[in-house]
Design a protein that fits this description.
The protein is 36% helix and 29% strand. The chain is α/β, with parallel strands linked by helices. The protein has two domains: 223 residues, Rossmann fold; 66 residues, YebC, transcriptional regulation domain (Alpha-Beta Plaits, 2-Layer Sandwich). It has a six-stranded mixed sheet, sandwiched between helices. It has a four-stranded antiparallel sheet with strand order 2-1-4-5, covered by helices on one side. The chain has a four-stranded antiparallel sheet with strand order 12-13-11-14, sandwiched between helices. Helix 3 runs parallel beside helix 5. The longest helix is centred in the middle third of the chain and has 16 residues. 37% of the residues are buried.
Length: 315
């Protein structure tokens, strides 16, 4: 689908951010359509959070240009702040206030008062399932509940675009799953969600994503597109012991394009299934016990590992 300029929630062109001699964001360009759940994937320090802070008007870019909700990220930062919601990776609400007091505080910061504030408070309590905890001190809530409250406070003024910077860092898997259910609820209402994460399973929930490495975007597309595009060959799952000896052995074979640890197995990329015999023979020669070798479907983690290794070799 081709979008016209007024259908973009976010546009970035040749964005650069330097801190002294260090380049945190290096010539980044992308567009995000209205209503998308767009993921920024990458390891800590890849440049995701810096990019988010530029888009939110918190940091000024060194060079480049961009728009958020149609407004310029350099000249209209104050206007941008009225149209977006921002949730940082560190819990940023007031722990000595109750749940409803935090909602009221942030509502008034965004200019939400009276009946509208009452309606938004009721919506947030319902959306985050916090009605029974409305009078609880925020500091007494478990981390999962705190993150739901933070999401609600970021949306109290009904923003067009929601920026979530590592929103589930430090949260248990069950709470992370529930948090993503809330993100879907928000997106269904037409809000654009721009989320950074380093969790591969979370990235699967995004409509599209960009993979960042050392300040650059090294891949962009839907989860399905990235898996198809960047796993060149046949992916095999190999169970063998001892694992590290098997990894070293396979890594030395000409038929092996990529090999990486994946839980209790190894993920190995070869040209075709015909290469399995070569793998098996090499492992047996090294007295490595083979439990089984079978084809596997690539995951985003496989894509991530392959792309990072390619980027490192290129560097």
């Amino acid at each position: 689908m081709t979008l016209t300029s007024n259908e973009y929630a976010v546009t970035i062109s040749d964005l650069v951010k330097k801190f002294g001699s260090f380049t945190a964001v290096d010539d980044v360009s992308l567009t995000v359509g209205r209503g998308e759940i767009f993921g920024f994937l990458g390891a800590n320090g890849a440049g995701k959070s810096t990019t988010i802070r530029i888009l939110c008007g918190i940091l000024a870019p060194t060079s480049g240009s961009g728009t958020v909700a149609g407004m310029d990220i350099v000249r209209e930062t104050e206007k941008i702040k009225t149209r977006i919601g921002y949730m940082s990776q560190r819990f940023s609400l007031y722990e000595d206030l109750t749940v409803t007091e935090n909602i009221k505080f942030f509502g008034e910061v965004y200019g939400v008062y009276g009946e509208r504030l009452a309606q938004r408070t009721a919506w947030i309590l319902e959306m985050a399932n916090l009605r029974e905890r409305r009078d609880s001190l925020t500091g007494e809530l478990a981390m999962g509940w705190k993150q739901r409250l933070a999401l609600g406070c970021a949306m109290v003024h009904e923003p067009d675009i929601l920026f979530l910077d590592e929103p589930t860092a430090g949260v248990d898997p069950a709470s992370r799953r529930r948090f993503w259910e809330l993100i879907y609820t928000v997106a269904e209402q037409g809000v654009t969600v721009f989320v950074t994460t380093h969790y591969m399973d979370e990235a699967e929930h995004c409509d599209r994503m960009a993979l960042m490495h050392r300040g650059r975007i090294i891949a962009l597309g839907t989860p399905a597109e990235l898996k198809e595009r960047y796993i060149a060959g046949t992916l095999l799952e190999v169970w063998a012991e001892p694992m590290m000896a098997a990894l070293e052995c396979l890594n030395s074979l000409p038929v092996v394009r990529e090999v990486a640890m994946f839980g209790s197995a190894l993920h190995v990329v070869v040209g075709s299934l015909e290469d399995v015999d070569s793998l098996r023979a090499a492992l047996e020669t090294m007295d490595i016990r083979i439990e089984r070798i079978e084809p596997a479907r690539p995951s985003l983690e496989d894509v991530f590992v392959a792309l990072i290794e390619h980027a490192e070799r290129g560097a």
